[in-house]
Amino acid sequence: MPTFDFDKLTDRRGTGSLKWDVSDGELPMWVADMDFETAPCVVRALERRVEGRIFGYHVIPDEWYEAYRCWWRDHHGFAVERAWLIFTTGVVPALSTAVRKFTTPAEKVIVQTPVYNIFFNSIVNNGRRILENPLTYRDGVYSMDLDDLEKKMSDPLATMLILCNPHNPAGRIWDAATLARVGEMARRHHVLVFSDEIHCDLTQPGRGYVPFASVSPVCRDVSITAVAPTKTFGIPGLQTAAVIVPEEGLRQRMDRALNTDEVAEPGSFAVDAAVAAFSDEGWDWLTRVRDYIEENKRTVRAFLRDRLPRVRCVEQDATYLMWLDMSAYTDDSEALAASIRKKTGLWLSAGSVYRGNGAAFLRLNVACPRARVEDGLARLYSALKDR
Predict the structure, then answer these.
(1) 299-328 mean pLDDT
(2) Are residues 229 and 92 in the same domain?
(3) Residue 302: is its pLDDT beyond 90?
(4) Longest dimension (CA), the chain
(5) Which secondary structure element, helix H or strand E, spans residue 192, and what is its range?
(6) Which residue, 129, 140, 145, 317, has most beta carbons within 10 Å?
(7) d(CA 350, CA 348)
């Protein structure tokens, strides 16, 4: 297996990076953006495209469809048919398109909070209403409140559920039995499930996830699934993703909607990057990066246990985003995050933006060289030691 240098401290300041557009001395560990250089196979694919020196309109070749199909078959046990796949520029653009196409103004879209805050933008910006199905939090673990979910789905104005699978920020991999119940309730109440599965490859080493559409014929037929290599391989700037839509009627409507919104055509690098990422070489890189991220998480857990025992790490199955229970310190995570940043330069995500019980949490991104993790922990200790 090739070796990769995840300890390399690549300087991203002055590169137009959203994450690193910070003041001197600040350490950003908030947005879900890796600080690892991407897989060499992806870099080579982009270099070959640059060497061509012409960047015209691009088609979706057979290789793109096969890359997705083989990846999900080999690594997730899900046989995706070619016809089910539609290119799109990103998961969020696809979500916003689905909200516009499959719901009407003033209808309600269900979200399971605390959850990725951009979901709220896709709902509100399109004139729809947010309907929260809060996750249950007990003994450091999140689970779905399925009774409350059925109650919310039974609302005649609730027409879509946005499922986060695996869940951000809780880091949960939803099991097949839970997903099957969600699918049955969605069918019963005529609710479309939009399943955001962008974090599906960032599981703990040796762990798999369950694609929602793979669970049952019911789940398959009531759902649109959004997937991408962008989060996994640190390439969100390349704007490359796909939706998987098995049910023909839904697929035809989604295909037309994505094209109407002009988010169904690839840029010059989008196809090549995805094909390269979803390859055997990409899998080798991912296997190593997951091991490294897990070691970073162990480093965080050990430090907090020894130095900041009042901070509790939520048990997680997936993602590189650690969800820190700060309830021993605050019920206003926005104020706490601002205080930590002002005092130490460490920038964490305030959990309140994810709603639910997020006001007592901070989100920490550990997809970075270990030296930065250790720097972040030292800053966190400096900010909290006297509180």
Answers:
(1) 97
(2) yes
(3) yes
(4) 59
(5) strand 192-196
(6) 317
(7) 6
